[in-house]
Amino acid sequence: MAIFDATPFQPLTSTGAASRGLDRRRFGAMVLAAGAGSLLPCRSALALPASDEARFIDFEWVDTARDRVVPARLYWPAASTRSGLVPLIVFSHGLGGSRKGYSYLGEGWSARGTASLHIQHVGSDESLWQGNPIMLLDRLGGAADEREAIERTRDVSFGLDRLLQRDSPFHAAVDRKRIVAAGHSFGANTTLILTGAQVIRDGKLLGFRDPRFTASIVISAPPFYGETDLAAVLASVDVPSLHVTTTEDTIRIPGRYSPVQDRIDVYAAIPTPQKALVVFHGGSHSVFTDRSLRNGGPLNPLVKRATAEVGLAFLDLVYKSDPAPLEDWSATWRPILAAAPMPFQVETLRSVRKRRA
């Protein structure tokens, strides 16, 4: 049973890769239909009330079972003690990132009462940009291979284990029913694996799903390089997911190229209708990182703020059956959107949950 049909421009009843996806011609028409518009959102978006100042704590964890360091940064709401259990988003960075990156998400989410744990993946983190530049291509190739993809999922699950273990000061404060996986680029692939993506190796399904994650935020997901059947890879992804991209979200790194359409294809291949897609009109693949120079100009801070806000609005939809925040978000940020999510019917969600209970 569908909980919600997130996109007004894609029928979910079709079958086959071509019919399920958003083809390039329709995607182009969708973008053009958005119009030029002003880059600035309406005045109300610039005057949203801020909560108490966010705080962050750095951890230097070591997974002794793998002899692997797992650094992490936790953004924790300053006002959390007054609001009961705290939702948690566990975030995975893209290739060459770190726990310090995507700070606008950690700060934006924690300022509104949602904690986020940003995991650093030592095999594919900022150390890639260090060392002999002649060897950069080799370092990137090793960081993006299948073994590192697996280790990334283990990093995330290990970090969540540490935060929730009984001797953690956050053990009793995290809402176990509202734990979300999130990531950008390679981290988006990590997120998909943690929520059900799997491949066939030696005739057997290989997956690293963590059932503690009950929703996901997938930002600029690349294809699963080397896999020819995307629908099969994503067939078991069934948690509600928010997909975020831009009309210029092309991946260009040594040894890897991925056009914008790949982001749409990943979204379309998710079998459950419990999904939503946001497409910003403009902004490169790295607009979602903390970089700002030559990265979208005046659009850059707007995309960042809108991305942080839509994540929280989506979680209100999933966990509170409240479509109003997402509807308000869509109206506020319409000037910079090529496509925005359509809220599902709350009554439908309630009936589905009642049958599952």
TrEMBL record:
Keywords (A to Z) from UniProt: Hydrolase, Lipid degradation, Lipid metabolism
Any Pfam family the entry gives: PAF-AH_p_II
Record's keyword annotation contains Hydrolase: yes
Any GO molecular function: 1-alkyl-2-acetylglycerophosphocholine esterase activity
Aminoacyl-tRNA synthetase as UniProt keyword: no
InterPro entries named in the record: AB_hydrolase_fold
GO biological process: lipid catabolic process
Protein name: Acetylhydrolase
